[in-house]
Amino acid sequence: MEHQTDINKAVRQHAEMAEYFSGGITVKKFTAEHAETTTKEIKLNPVNSEVSALRKNASLETIKEIDGIAEESRRCRKCDLGELRTNAVPGEGSPSARIMFVGEAPGADEDAQGRPFVGRAGQLLDKIIAACGLKRQDVWIGNILKCRPPDNRDPRPEEIVACLPFLQRQIELINPEVIVALGAHAAKTLLDTPKSIGQLRGLFHDYVPGIGHRPIKLMPTFHPAYLLRNYSDENRRKVWEDMKKVLTEIGLPIP
Ligand code: URA
Fold first, then answer.
1. Which pLDDT tens digit goes with each residue over 210-231?
2. Is any ligand 1 atom within 6 A of the Cβ of residue 117?
3. pTM for the whole thing?
């Protein structure tokens, strides 16, 4: 029974990955019956979640501090967005994540739920994560801003200045092996550079958490919302190339 569940899971993951890279964005439903026939034809890939589960757990202290940051961000009034939000979106995931995904700012769905990347762009991010053989719980997902800018306008410099210390501290505590910066705002802010996402993506850069800290590898890639708007084979391939570099960098198999 457990074996069947594993097969179902692996087949579903394979289907999601194939779906993502073949152009669709809906996840097909696979039945146990389908799993039985399909597993004869496809070679199952290793599931990276099992690899990342080998990583040591975060200390209680780290978890408490991450929770404290979340609480503080929910009370924050350091910029005008504090007045406008329904919910702050502090970020979520594994406190010992090896990979952190950082986006721009919450949108309407995220503001309503207080959780990052839960709208359409989030569904695509979920597929990218699944294509890597990982689950949302294996990684950490956050944003440059914790609160939604009205009408999803770009973050303003004063908002970034007010909010960034939360994320900087989260990165220090989680101490991932790689940060994936989703889109121009995340990449330019974390790398403190005016270069475009086109110039930055596809290459590892160093994010320096602070004096005395080792640099953390940062891979800029296209934001899932950009990918949804520009859903070409070429752009999808570029994102997958970027993610393959991330997996290779931390020694995880490429599904
Ligand atoms: N876009 C982002 O940058 N972040 C989210 O959380 C959702 C959409």
1. 888 899 999 999 999 999 999 9
2. yes
3. 0.83
